[in-house]
Amino acid sequence: MSVVLLVVGVVIGVAYIYRHIVVKGKRCTSKAKLHGKTVIVTGSNTGIGKTTAIDLARRGARVILACRCKQRGEAAMEEIRRESGSSQVVFMQLDLGSLKSIRSFAESFLKSEPRLDILINNAGICLQGQTEDGFGLMFGVNHLGHFLLTNLLLDRLKECAPSRIINVSSMAHNFGKIDFDCLNSHKALGLGTSFIRLLQIYCDSKLCNALFNHELAKRLRGTQVTCYTLHPGAISSELGRNTGLFLQIVLKPITTFFFKNTVQGCQTTLHCALQEGIEPLSGRYFSNCTVRDLFAKARDDAAAKKLWEISERLDGS
């Protein structure tokens, strides 16, 4: 009996340490204030996007919530205003699965907002399907939509430099690959609807984020616009809300105990957006508020350039 109690005690102790040290992770230590600055956060009506927006609003930024759903976006706007105590929080509708919506958003933003200091490409989905333009849904939303949005807003970012672009990726990119033949023939990263294919294509889309960031940094040399990509950690958020109900129920205890909450999960995004002195690290990848080395496939010059050229052709830019 005493041995059993000892084992149970050890297990609880290890779990406690994991939960409060490993899972919790580092926090953004920047004290930067953002009065007079404007930030766009995509996908900011929920998850780490919303907690990122709350923090930035508390620092005095004018925060643009770029979200697809008008009802959820406006509800998030009111909540973020209450949480932050700031009235400088604005909802603007943006559907990253629609090239028309992206161009409309950029046009409206550039007409109504004189500044853009930080662009946070945060939105992401893990769901199969097609966009209204016929692209694979995860390719269209997780990569191509942000690719077009960034390029449409790049001149304003340059005008307001020093400025930053944050591309939220994931360590899942390590398991990704880019099938350029499939992209050219099907305008998708992969085909199939099984759960395994779903996860693989999600990983592929996260590799797209890393390669986009790599090529973008090269093209931004000589400007005062810098860009960073990151792994936010395993987050207990709404990313998997489109998975089956049974799987959500099974995974809930695991995600609650072993995954970061959204406040913990947004810390590396905030670090990349705010931390002073990281400009020489433009193009690099961060995890747990620390710069990390990427595997070779995520910093492949030829693959990054090829993805950029295909993306330009597909989005018509």
CATH class: Alpha Beta
**Oligomerization category of the chains in this entry:** single chain
CA gyration radius, whole angstroms: 20 Å
Q: Which outline best applies?
A: globular
Q: Approximately what portion of the residues adopt beta-strand conformation? A: 5-15%
Number of domains: 1
Main sheet specs: 8 strands, mixed
Count the beta strands. Answer: 8
What is the helix/strand order?
A: HEHEHEHEHEHHEHHHEEH
- The parts where pLDDT drops under 50 for at least 5 residues are 3-22
Would you summarize the structure shown here?
This protein is of the alpha/beta class. The chain is 50% helix and 12% strand. The protein contains eleven helices and eight strands.
Topology:
Elements: H1 2-23, E1 38-42, H2 47-58, E2 62-67, H3 70-84, E3 89-93, H4 99-112, E4 118-121, H5 137-159, E5 163-168, H6 180-186, H7 195-219, E6 225-231, H8 245-258, H9 262-265, H10 267-274, E7 285-287, E8 290-292, H11 301-315
Parallel strand pairs: 1-2, 1-4, 2-3, 4-5, 5-6, 6-7
Antiparallel strand pairs: 7-8
Q: What does this 3D model show about the protein?
A:
Pfam families: adh_short. Keywords: Oxidoreductase. Belongs to the short-chain dehydrogenases/reductases (SDR) family. With 317 residues, the protein is α/β, with parallel strands linked by helices. The protein has a single domain, classed as Rossmann fold, CATH 3.40.50. The chain is 50% helix and 12% strand. It has an eight-stranded mixed beta sheet with strand order 3-2-1-4-5-6-7-8, sandwiched between helices. Strand 2 (62-67), helix 3 (70-84) and strand 3 (89-93) form a beta-alpha-beta unit. The radius of gyration is 20 Å and the shape is globular. Mean pLDDT is 89; it is low at 3-22.
